[in-house]
Amino acid sequence: MSELEQLELVFYRTQGLSNKSIMSLTGRSSNIVCDWMILCQDIPVKMFEKRIQIGGPDVIIQVYECLLRGSRKNHIDFSSENIEDENDDPLENGKRNYGRRMEGPWVFGLCNGSEAQYFVVEKRDKQTLQEIIKREVILGSIIHSNGWPVYNGIAQHGYTHNTVNHCKNFVDSLTQAHTQQIEHLWRPLHLKVVKNMCGTSPDLPR
């Protein structure tokens, strides 16, 4: 394949299209598309494994934890072919997908400017989150977090720690600490994960 054809496959992969859709758009065989999709998965994994610590003296690192979840929209099929009797009520007979809550993983994120790292965590307790911070963030960095108690004591490990109480304001009036940047970066990730959880095709336009 030419470089342009290779880039085309990579582009469709980054758009979240299914293998079937990519095969249809490019005319490539299943084997070729599958091989390239595996390659596209392996490259970022290897890059992530070789990542270096972020931050540094006087560099602000925002941290935030998020439960990726959503609720399905009411989806009731009232089409005539799915109702055997005119008195057959889909709401009463289970022919519905009605507002079921979709629970996703807890994800912990660290943000250095416009760049962010995300980690799926089984627990969002003090030991788990602070171990990630110590592993990923250079000593001397300034940590900005919300006021959740699990972050208490992080300053003892060689960081400056400033918090913002979201019940009172979005930016702390004394330290100017905030988590707005990482919360903004959560949005595309949250939308993508929740959309897939709710059964929405990733092939739909964004």
Identify the CATH architecture of the largest domain: 2-Layer Sandwich
Beta percentage is 15-25%
- Give Rg in angstroms: 23 Å
Helix content: 25-40%
Please state the structural category.
alpha/beta
Q: Quaternary state, please? A: single chain
Q: How many domain regions?
A: 2
CATH superfamily of the largest domain: Ribonuclease H-like superfamily/Ribonuclease H
Give the end-to-end Cα distance, rounded to a whole number of Å: 28 Å
The number of distinct helices, counting runs of at least 4 residues, comes to 5
What series of H and E elements makes up the topology? HHHEEEEEHEEH
Number of strands: 7
Any idea of the CATH topology of the largest domain? Nucleotidyltransferase, domain 5
Task: Indicate the CATH class of the largest domain.
Answer: Alpha Beta
Poorly predicted runs of 5 or more residues: 72-98, 200-206
Major beta sheet, strand line-up: 5-4-1-6-7
| Sheet having the most strands | 5 strands, mixed
Tell me what the structure shows:
The chain is α/β, with parallel strands linked by helices. It folds into two domains: 1-50; 54-72 and 102-200, Nucleotidyltransferase, domain 5. Helices cover 33% and strands 22% of the residues. The protein has helices spanning 3-14, 19-26, 30-49, 126-136, 180-197, and strands at residues 60-71, 75-76, 96-97, 101-112, 115-121, 142-146, 160-164. The protein has a five-stranded mixed sheet with strand order 5-4-1-6-7, sandwiched between helices. A two-stranded antiparallel ribbon has the order 2-3. α2 (19-26) packs across α3. The longest helix has 20 residues, at 30-49. It is elongated. It starts with a helix and ends in a 9-residue tail after the last helix. Mean pLDDT is 76; it is low at 72-98 and 200-206.
